[in-house]
Design goal:
6-stranded antiparallel sheet; 27 strands; alpha+beta; RNA-binding; about 45% helix
RNA sequence: GGCGCGGUAGCUCAGGUGGUUAGAGCGUUGGAUUCAUAACCCAAAGGUCGGGGGUUCAACUCCCCCCCGCGCUACCA
């Protein structure tokens, strides 16, 4: 089943260069990737660990505009910020590149040409909104207008942020360009599409059949769901200035859509890293390609990008995509825009020299199978009761004992058996511990191989647990009064355990590993290789070896320290509340264009009484209302299911448009439209006369 | 509404081709101990394995229905 791979290409999702990194990014992709890569390197594998900033797309241009800078200046800023945060945190990329590099432009364009030459792309001309004053086609995000769903007057062309509905620009009422403020016009434009549908059969073979058992269930299930729903051609170009130009004569003014160029960034980064040698890492069957991503990226990395690679024809495909779920913070979703986050660069300032603590905690709650929650209380508890109390304490007590009884020199491991019952007992305990430790090492390695880093770290910590127990059971401080040879034997082994911990913790706690190496005064490289090769305990320090003075590895996280952090989050929330209050105070939306009394007169608005109401089947939002309109009894569908139950609406009078052209929805015809008032929080309320009137009464 | 993933001790999670008293770490409580950052060690308490049906000699594990969380998706004239 498992192939014999000669080298690894490991990618971590390219972070989008429009904001800083937070712990959710770290826990989702970068920490697991880094842990895995460190493990691979320790095993002596040939690995290319690539990442970089994703710098194209409309969101960048919008962000740049908001800050009043060029897109290039905008991405420069965030690229540097993220690059520094990664470096400061110790994510060990072999290269952290960026998609605005020339090499990436060339790579992405070559990639496009290669597929284009096979005439695989579809071309399609469609009407898109065009801003005549600016002379540009407007991306969905650049168009604002009234949401057809909730009436929010500031909905974007791709989504209404108020009610969350996803939209297309043409659905917007009174569209306007957010660039110039003018009303855009529809104009034909040509775009290229990648025929994902043509890869359905192949995806079924490769993914659904081929990776049924080796991919995580959450990843596999999501992919299967997508494929089963049927795939559509996807547009791969945009009318935009910022991006990689479409390499075609007739592609002037158009760029590759960001999702198309971004994953190619992995390839560009590898070229930059390996030079002429890069193809080995992308085109050789004995290379294992692994993508580390968050769950939001599953469809791109498991379906779209592999299809692109397949279409190009000369590349290998990902062997595994161990996507993580999401991390929450104090019970709420992390949010860049709401500033509800623990920013990586801020953590590094607030907790200097405590990178491993964050690594440890994030890894121990890693959202491998479901969304997880980071709380500062939990952070404190895990650091204090696990890193400090179990790992740090074990290393410290062994060091202190060795200095106390042997002046910091590793004692000789004498032959002990048969000389006394006590010695025999020590030997038994030693054997037990040894078996336990080797078992933990084996399980740790197994977990690392399976991308179960949470579990792997647990088994690593088990080494310290067994070590503590070994000391408690053998009690060398008591024996010191009667049998120093036995004490030496015990401590010799305890030091062996410490040394092995320092080797085993390297993928998880790289700083701690170095700290222990320093205290043990050992050169880890050779024994480490042996350890990871044999996956059993090694002997890192021999008798007579001189240790350095003991130093504490970790210190307790004080209540005050986490209170500061919790307070920080609370303040952000409070500030946010204030902002939303001001929004409520100033909810007035811009006026729609002036209409005449004749325009108004075309509408036949009436009051009717709801005589029956049921929830529309198979719909979350629609209620099916039967309305006595005075003229007739008609059926009106209304998207108010989230605001009213059918029961509470029956018997109520409502205002509705009586002469609106009927429209079929979910197989039922709606004969009119119920008028609603929308509160500032998006809540919908029926518009009623303040006294009951006869059904059919007109409104004017 | 459809699809996917998940719902196991206070917390973080294991588990199982169905079969003795359902596991671990942390937390809690009690004990023991002093080499160690009131740490370590031992022990105990703590779960009707989301709810309800069904299949079976036997289900937490298989089947059906429902509820909750997260994500994707349809509907919102």
């Amino acid at each position: 089943m498992k192939k014999d791979f000669k080298r690894y290409t490991v990618t971590a999702a390219l972070p989008y260069a429009n904001g800083p990194l937070h712990i959710g990014h770290v826990a989702g992709a970068y920490l697991p990737a880094d842990t895995y890569v460190r493990y691979l390197r320790l095993k002596g594998e040939d690995v290319a660990f690539v990442c970089g900033s994703d710098e194209h797309g409309v969101a960048i241009t919008i962000g740049a505009k908001k800050e009043g800078v060029s897109p290039k200046a905008f991405v420069d800023k965030y690229h540097e910020l993220m690059k520094k945060a990664f470096a400061d945190f110790g994510i060990s990329f072999d290269i952290y590149s960026r998609t605005s590099n020339k090499i990436h432009y060339d790579t992405a364009q070559d990639f496009f040409r290669k597929i284009d030459a096979q005439h695989l792309f579809l071309e399609e001309t469609s009407d898109q909104y065009f801003d005549e004053q600016e002379g540009i086609f407007l991306a969905d995000r650049y168009i604002a207008g009234t949401c057809p769903n909730c009436g929010h007057t500031n909905a974007y062309g791709d989504q209404c942020e108020k009610c969350g509905t996803s939209l297309s620009p043409k659905q917007l009422i009174n569209p306007r360009s957010t660039v110039s403020g003018n009303t855009p016009v529809l104009k034909p434009t040509k775009h290229w599409y990648f025929p994902l549908d043509k890869f359905e059969g192949w995806l079924k073979d490769w993914l659904i059949e081929g990776h049924k058992s080796d991919w995580k269930t959450n990843v596999y299930g999501q992919c299967k769901s997508w494929i089963d729903q049927g795939l559509q051609p996807r547009s791969i170009t945009r009318d935009l200035e910022w991006g990689i130009p479409v390499p075609r004569e007739d592609g002037k003014g158009k760029v590759l859509y960001v999702w198309f160029d971004a994953p190619i960034g992995y390839i560009s980064a590898t070229k930059e890293l390996k030079g002429a040698d890069w193809e080995k890492y992308w085109k050789s069957d004995d290379t294992r390609l692994i993508h580390f991503i968050g769950k939001d990226n599953i469809v791109f990395h498991c379906i779209i990008f592999p299809s692109m690679l397949k279409a190009e024809g000369t590349f290998i495909l990902p062997d595994n995509v161990p996507a993580n779920e999401f991390l929450n913070l104090e019970g709420e979703k992390l949010s860049t825009s709401r500033n509800h986050a623990v920013w990586l660069h801020e953590y590094l300032v607030d907790f200097p020299g405590r990178r491993d603590e964050l690594r440890y905690v994030l890894n121990s709650i890693s959202p491998e199978t479901k969304d997880a929650d980071f709380t500062w209380k939990d952070y404190q508890q895990k650091v204090n009761s696990e890193l400090v109390a179990i790992l740090g304490n074990f290393v410290n007590r062994v060091m202190v004992l060795t200095w106390k009884y042997f002046e910091g020199k590793v004692p000789a491991s004498h032959e002990l058996p048969n000389t006394s019952d006590k010695r025999k007992r020590i030997l038994d305990l030693y054997n037990l511990a040894h078996i336990d430790l080797n078992k933990s090492v084996a399980e740790m390695v197994k977990a690392l191989e399976d991308f179960r880093f949470r579990d792997a770290q647990f088994h690593m910590m088990n080494l310290a647990r067994v070590g503590n127990k070994f000391l408690a059971d053998t009690e060398p401080w008591k024996l010191a009064k009667e049998d120093m040879e036995a004490v030496g034997c015990i401590l010799n082994y305890a030091l062996t355990v410490v040394g092995n911990i320092s080797i085993a913790c390297q993928p998880f706690l790289p700083d701690t590993a170095r700290n222990i190496h320093a205290q043990l005064n050992m050169d880890a490289s050779e024994v480490s290789k042996k350890f990871w090769k044999s996956q059993t305990l090694v002997e890192p320090v021999g008798a007579g070896h001189q240790l350095n003075p003991a130093a504490l590895l970790f210190r307790n996280v004080e209540d005050t320290e986490i209170e500061v952090q919790v307070e920080k989050l609370r303040k952000v929330k409070a500030a946010k509340m204030e902002v939303s209050t001001t929004v409520i105070e100033n909810p007035v939306k811009p006026l729609k264009e002036i209409v005449t009394i004749d325009d108004f007169g075309k509408l036949d608005i009436r009051v009717g009484t709801i005589t029956a109401a049921t929830k529309m089947e198979k719909s979350d939002k629609l209620l099916k209302l039967t309305v006595d309109s005075g003229l007739d009894t008609r059926t009106i569908l209304s998207g108010i299911a989230k605001h009213y139950t059918p029961e509470e609406v029956i018997g109520k009078q409502v205002t509705f448009i009586a002469n609106l052209a009927p429209r079929k929805m979910m197989g039922t015809e709606s004969q009119g439209m119920i008028l609603m008032a929308e509160d500032s929080d998006g809540k919908l309320r029926l518009l009623q006369p303040n006294e009951v009137v006869r059904p059919g009464s007109t409104v004017s």
